[in-house]
Write a structure and sequence with these properties.
There is one protein chain. This protein is of the alpha+beta class. It has a single domain, classed as Alpha-Beta Plaits. Helix content is 22%, strand content 25%. The protein has 2 helices and 4 strands, in the order βαββαβ. A hairpin with a 4-residue loop joins β2 and β3. The longest helix has 9 residues. The termini are close together.
Length: 63
């Protein structure tokens, strides 16, 4: 089963992932960092693209 890991230490809170793929990524209001909408989202091309466009490269997809 694939898994998405967000390194919140590296996350700058730019919101790129949440804008590109709002079904999977959201911004945590308390930390102002990226978070997952659900625990085990489906890995789609949109998810891969959002991870690729992350300027901090803090999103990792484990398959």
């Amino acid at each position: 089963m694939a898994e998405i890991i967000i390194d919140t230490y590296l996350c700058s809170g730019c919101e790129t992932c949440a804008e590109m793929c709002p079904d999977v990524f959201r911004m945590d209001e308390a930390t102002e960092k990226a978070a997952l909408v659900s625990v085990s989202p489906q890995i789609t091309d949109a998810v891969r693209q959002a991870a690729a466009f992350c300027p901090e490269k803090c999103i990792e997809i484990l398959e």
